[in-house]
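tool=predict chain=A
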Amino acid sequence: MGWMRRLLRLRNNMPAKDIVFLNQLATAYLEELGDREEQDRALGELTAIAEAFRGDESFRDTLLNPALSVTERKKFLRTALDNRVQTKTLNTLLTLLHEHRLADLALFIDRVRAVRMHKHAVRDALVTSAVPLLDKERERIKTALEQKWGTAVALREHVDPSLIAGLTIEAADWHYDATVAGRLKRLGQHLVTTSTT
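tool=predict ok
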């Protein structure tokens, strides 16, 4: 069975509380790391460790050996990775070991990638207004959209005096129209439909 299929099987059979734990640890790990460059480096470290964990039987067996105490296994991990990984990566691995989750390292890496992708996702929105937006308006719109969508928003702006007043916001599959022109159009459509019935 391929590595990805095993990962999906693990995820599907894993209790929800364990997935929540891995998500929380992934989020905390990324927050500790900070910028994308440091995250890239850390993901490289984790991937290399996961490959060693998969490929080096003695390394894996020592870390998962129930006959050894958690303290002994932590000491082994510290020695094996000393000066080879960032302290934040080592501490995260020690947390996984302490929580008896080191066998879920591949799934943890998957969760780190998913959280990172979600965290760095940016949704584009085009704001078309009758007059240029003020800084305060721009910030209010951006904040409202980020709260609504739960992700960062990059605003693009366009001025269209034909709107008379108000604005429209467009983003992929979402449209909002708060313009005088839009209201007049909807009113006209409503009048046409009600007069024909």
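The chain is about 65% helix and 15% strand. The two ends are 64 Å apart (CA to CA).
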